[in-house]
Amino acid sequence: SVPWEFPKVCPSCGEHLQRSQGDANTYCVNRHCPARIETGISHFASRNALDIEGLGERTVQLLVEERLVEDAGDLFALTKQQLLEVLVSDSSNETLVTNLLTAIDQARECPLSNLLIGLGVEHLGPSTAELLARRFGNIEAISLAEITDIAAIDGIGPVIAKSVKDFFGDDHHRAVVEKLRNNGVRLDLVQGEVNAPQILVGRSVVVTGSLEGWFVTREEAKQAIIARGGKSPGSVSKSTYALVVGTEAGETKLNTASDLGVPILGEAELRDLLETGQVF
User: Name one GO molecular function term (predicted).
Assistant: First the structure.
């Protein structure tokens, strides 16, 4: 039998494949490669990014084949007539197109962190994208930030900081962002607080139980902690700074906090924590 050899060229476009030093993955670096374009747009529309319902892989493939889209920025310039001609064999059935256009329009108001994920910044995950969005507030500020400023954010190290800087230093990526801006996509939508005082940097605050009736919901409490530079993991450990306890809290977290001497906070103590960064 003939030994299997790893492909040297992209099966989609025929360009040579490349693998960076220290990287286990091999990539096609041709930005005009149909498969690469399709993958990028499908990722942009995925649930963890802009969550554009109805924009599945087959639909993306058709749009790329018809040269209606070359990148994610083109999605927001699509017209009803274009989509009808490509996606609907029976012109009387417009529901598919109408629903897709509605989903695309709703995606114009997506959170900045989701947009950063959708753009495909290497090494940037949901939590670090959220940190980046909260620290800088809009994509313009992120694109202009220095590596040292990005790396200074607790939870974002030099590798991610360099990746972000390299991404926005690329002409192609800047052109995609400009398309998004010109097509009405919000580039500054941050949920919760922006530029909150960084008084919880390096501290982990766990929130458990229901905060119904409090001045914040459970999710808002977590967001407020993160906005102040802290972390809000799901479990208590020896590194936990405090445990916020609402009603119907889990006994495991309470017992662990008690055994480790972790301060247990109620509503008033949480308010003080968010204002001062301290447990009294």
Answer: DNA ligase (NAD+) activity
Q: Is the dihedral of CA 264, 270, 276, 277 positive or negative?
A: positive
Number of helical (H) and strand (E) elements in the chain, helices listed first: 13, 5
Angle between helices 57-65 and 80-87 (to 10 degrees): 100
Per-residue pLDDT of the chain (280 residues; tens, 9 = 90+): 788 888 899 999 999 999 877 777 888 999 999 999 999 999 999 999 999 999 999 999 999 999 999 999 999 999 999 999 998 876 656 888 999 999 999 999 999 999 999 999 999 988 889 889 988 999 999 999 999 999 988 778 899 999 999 999 999 999 999 999 999 999 999 877 777 888 998 899 999 999 999 999 998 899 899 888 888 988 999 999 999 999 999 899 999 999 999 999 999 999 999 999 999 8
Q: Which helix H or strand E contains 206, and what residues bound it?
A: strand 204-208
CB-CB contact of 126 with 113 (8 Å) = yes
The amino acid that residue 232 corresponds to is S
pTM, to two decimals: 0.74
Beta bridge partners of 15: none
Domains of the chain from N-terminus onward: 34-108 (1.10.150.20), 112-182 (1.10.150.20), 204-276 (3.40.50.10190)
Nearest to 95 by CA among 84, 82, 104, 79: 84
